[in-house]
Write a structure and sequence with these properties.
heterodimer, A: 515 residues, alpha/beta, Ubiquitin-like (UB roll), 4 domains, five-stranded mixed β-sheet, 21 helices, 16 strands, B: 152 residues, alpha+beta, Glutaredoxin, 2 domains, four-stranded mixed β-sheet, 7 helices, 12% strand, elongated
């Protein structure tokens, strides 16, 4: 009988040695003449357990974690004989507290099977959303999205239904669906994980969006730092075309929709939707002034839905399960689930999908297990390079868009980067400005010049903290960038700078403020 | 312009809507860089000015206008990797290879900074070719360099 094993083929599992593990097992199987079928599934996101091996054993899907090829001597024999005897045996994967306490909607399929096998996708509930969308009027599909309360997952949290409604209502000979897969924020990898572990879900969501608003062409703008995701998406698109899910007559209907993957070229700013559109048009990725909204004049001047990977993927869940079911998850105006990416100096890093409203402390300590270095956590940066650094006093903030906004922070794309007590917050503030220097598109002065001056002022401040003029100048500069920049790049770069200055003044050689 | 491969890349993408980025990627994939003498031909083919094409070419970090080093090694310098010692790794890489990050002009190995490889739970991260390596410390970096040189 063939022994079937599941080992993730995603970037992180491979980076940790999953390919070497596969190679060792294949050698052992050949030597023992055991028929072996290794399915390169996607990762479930428990990166602290990768490379992880899963198999069906006595009616359960069991796992063995942190399996390095160098420790794999006799592994195949153990798996055949009794995998439970392996020292890294984890038990039933779904029962591990790390997974069992999550609320998986978008990532329910991730890690279950071959990500680019359409039959597996169907067997796990895929394509039900698209089938339902095809049975509804475009108006009803948009209504479902609106009623679900789905908000953009890229960071701005704009209601998806309103965007779709605008594009649906626009008259044009051609409309587009553009997926923003330029996941440039450090500390985020949810988009990548979805594209590598369950790419059909994104394709399905885009097709639903196309049917809803009357677009026939979709583009996935993918960052070039994600070669594995590019491969998986292209293979999934080929399979979907072959099966009639994409192309003319989607699932036998009279609608057509196709998708092309376009590669970025290493520019963070192209994650901003209007810069992304310029880049897709073959130009420099320069931010456009709004209005006109991309929903009315987007790609090539045509009405365009621009949504993040997770937003479009969630559309398939909304349509499959219905708006009410989706709406039932979450809290206040934050509906559905939140994908948190536990990153940086973290013991149990990876992706977790949880209800909104859970606290930062819970996820960093209960799920994340504190720092990997074992030292105390000092600062947590939430929401990417443009997000605030939060000190311990802020860790009880509930994770929802409004609570974070009120605290002067942002949830963004759900990236949580943990730093231990060796971090120099003045250096982090300087990095935020330097990053903006490197990545500003250059269109507006506050961002282009402000960031250069910002680096200089921070250097002067740190060199001579007694020079109070520098601190005033830095605050003033942050004001100018915040209020005068065209987009979030310049507008939010002050956020990490100010939070570092406010909560960690001692790192700048300053005394703590009374407030 | 003397390279038939450039012509092939141009003709493949000249009629694709917004095809300039795919075109530049394909030229760089074929030659390792986008030579200056390709710019006028591209501009003519897509009916844009040479300044516009040069503007696009120079805007994006990925594109290079000079031949690359024999090996290019990208080190993630973003926050999540900083939290795990990316700065120390960068210093080690620069010292052991004798090149500074971001200042390559040909040679044997070039070190490039990269802002995030999406491997943020297991940094510091290094990318060589299309392979990403996780939790890279000084010893592992040296081992990666040795393996990279042996493969070539």
């Amino acid at each position: 009988m063939t022994l079937s094993l599941y080992i993730s083929g995603d970037t992180t599992a491979r980076a940790l040695g999953a390919d070497a593990l596969v190679a060792v097992l294949e050698v052992q199987a050949a030597a023992a003449d055991v028929p072996l079928n290794i399915i390169r599934s996607g990762s479930r996101g428990a990166f602290w357990l990768e490379p992880m091996l899963e198999m069906d054993w006595q009616g359960k899907r069991i796992g063995i974690g942190e399996l390095m090829a160098s420790d794999a001597e006799g592994l195949l024999a153990t798996l055949l004989d009794n995998p439970e005897s392996h020292p890294n045996y984890l038990g039933e994967v779904a029962e591990l507290p790390w997974f069992a306490n999550q609320h998986r909607l978008t990532f329910a399929r991730a890690g279950e099977g071959d990500p680019i096998d359409l039959n597996t996708y169907r067997a796990l509930g895929g394509l039900q959303g698209l089938e339902r969308a095809l049975s509804l009027t475009p108006d009803a599909v948009v209504e479902e999205i609106t009623d679900s309360g789905l908000r953009g997952r890229g960071g701005a949290a704009f209601p998806a239904g309103i965007k779709w409604r605008t594009v649906l209502g626009a008259e044009a000979d051609q409309k587009y669906i553009v997926c923003n897969a330029d996941e440039g924020d450090s500390g985020t990898f949810a988009d990548r994980l979805l594209m590598e572990s369950d790419p059909f879900q994104l394709l399905e969501g885009m097709a639903i969006a196309g049917i809803a608003v009357g677009a026939t062409q979709g583009y996935i703008y993918l960052r070039s730092e994600y070669p594995r995701a590019q491969l998986m998406l292209n293979e999934a698109i080929d399979a979907a075309r072959l099966a009639g899910v994409l192309g003319e007559r989607v699932l036998g209907s009279d609608k057509s929709f196709d998708i092309e993957v376009r590669l970025g070229a290493g520019a963070y700013i192209c994650g901003e939707e209007t810069a992304l559109l310029d880049s897709l048009e073959g130009k420099r990725g320069m931010v456009r002034a709004k209005p006109p909204l991309p929903a009315l004049e987007g790609l090539f001047g045509k009405p365009t839905v621009v949504n993040n990977v997770l937003t479009l993927a969630a559309a398939s869940t909304v349509l499959a399960e219905g708006a009410a079911a989706y709406q039932a998850h979450g809290t206040g105006r934050s509906r559905g689930t939140l994908t948190v990416q536990l990153a940086g100096n973290i013991a149990r890093g990876g992706l977790i999908e949880v209800p909104y409203g859970i606290s930062l402390r819970e996820i960093v300590f209960d799920w994340g297990g504190g720092t990997r270095s074992g030292r105390p956590v000092r600062a947590i940066q939430v929401g990417g390079p443009l997000g605030a650094y939060l000190p311990e006093a802020q860790w009880d903030l509930p994770l929802d868009y409004e609570a974070f906004a009120q605290a002067g922070a942002m949830l963004g794309h759900g990236g949580v980067v943990v730093f231990d007590d060796t971090i120099d917050m003045a250096a982090q503030a300087r990095f935020a400005m330097a990053f903006c220097v490197a990545e500003s598109c250059g269109k507006c002065t506050p961002c282009r010049m402000g960031s250069i001056r910002g680096v200089e002022v921070i250097d002067k401040l740190v060199a001579n903290p007694a020079d109070t003029a520098q601190k005033i100048l830095l605050e003033d500069l942050c004001d100018t960038m915040e209020h005068g920049s065209l987009c979030a790049m310049g507008g939010l770069t002050p956020s990490p700078v100010r939070s570092a200055l406010r909560y960690f003044p001692e790192d700048f050689g300053l005394a703590a403020e009374a407030s | 312009m003397n390279d038939i491969r450039i012509e092939e890349c141009i003709s493949r993408y000249r009629d694709v809507p917004g095809g300039l980025l795919p075109m530049l990627h394909s030229i760089q994939h074929a030659l390792g860089y986008v030579p200056a003498d390709a710019v006028p031909a591209i501009a003519t083919a897509i009916n844009r000015s040479r300044a516009e094409v040069h503007g696009v070419l120079s805007f994006y970090h990925d594109f290079r206008e000079t031949p690359p080093a024999r090996h290019t090694v990208q080190i993630c310098v973003s926050e999540a990797c900083q939290a795990n010692g990316a700065d120390a790794l960068k210093a080690h890489a620069e010292a052991s290879l004798g090149v500074a990050v971001g200042h390559s002009s040909g040679g044997d190995v070039a070190l490039e900074p990269v802002y995030c490889l999406g491997n943020c739970a297991c940094g510091p991260s290094v990318r060589i070719g299309d392979a990403v390596h996780a939790r890279v410390d000084a010893d592992q970096f040296d081992a990666l360099m040795a393996a990279m040189r042996q493969e070539a």
